[in-house]
């Protein structure tokens, strides 16, 4: 039997609504939950990202210490169909590495920082 897996990454963020607006704007997504503590970002009807307020525990405990940097050594990676269109929706100050060819992977990439400083990579043709 093959295990069916669907990634549903969750990022702990300081401001859920700000992060939701950023990700929805860049990805062309929509809010599928909304709120100050938790959000689901959907693109074309599919869940692509969850956002959770860093210091709210709910039933599972808090995600982390709000005094520590977020995302050190971690990247959120999205494959997209229209990298150039997406690049046009990213603010210049968010760009870490502009659109470039990754010769090892054989595709183009754009590396940016989200409002909490997470490294976000968009890859495509």
Automatic annotation (TrEMBL):
This is VOC domain-containing protein. Gene3D superfamilies: 2,3-Dihydroxybiphenyl 1,2-Dioxygenase, domain 1. SUPFAM superfamilies: Glyoxalase/Bleomycin resistance protein/Dihydroxybiphenyl dioxygenase. Pfam families: Glyoxalase. It comes from the Bacteria. Residues 1-125 form the VOC domain. InterPro entries: Glyas_Bleomycin-R_OHBP_Dase, Glyas_Fos-R_dOase_dom, VOC_core.
């Amino acid at each position: 039997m093959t295990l069916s897996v669907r990634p549903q990454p969750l990022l702990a963020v300081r401001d859920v609504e700000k992060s939701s607006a950023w990700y929805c704007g860049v990805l062309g997504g929509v809010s599928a939950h909304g709120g100050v503590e938790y959000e689901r970002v959907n693109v074309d009807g599919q869940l692509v990202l969850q956002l959770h307020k860093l210091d709210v525990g709910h039933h599972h405990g808090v995600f982390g210490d709000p005094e520590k940097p977020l995302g050190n050594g971690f990247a959120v990676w999205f494959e997209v169909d229209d990298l150039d269109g997406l690049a046009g929706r990213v603010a210049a100050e968010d760009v870490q590495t502009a659109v470039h060819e990754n010769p090892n992977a054989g595709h183009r990439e754009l590396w940016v920082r989200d409002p909490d400083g997470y490294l976000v990579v968009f890859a495509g043709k």
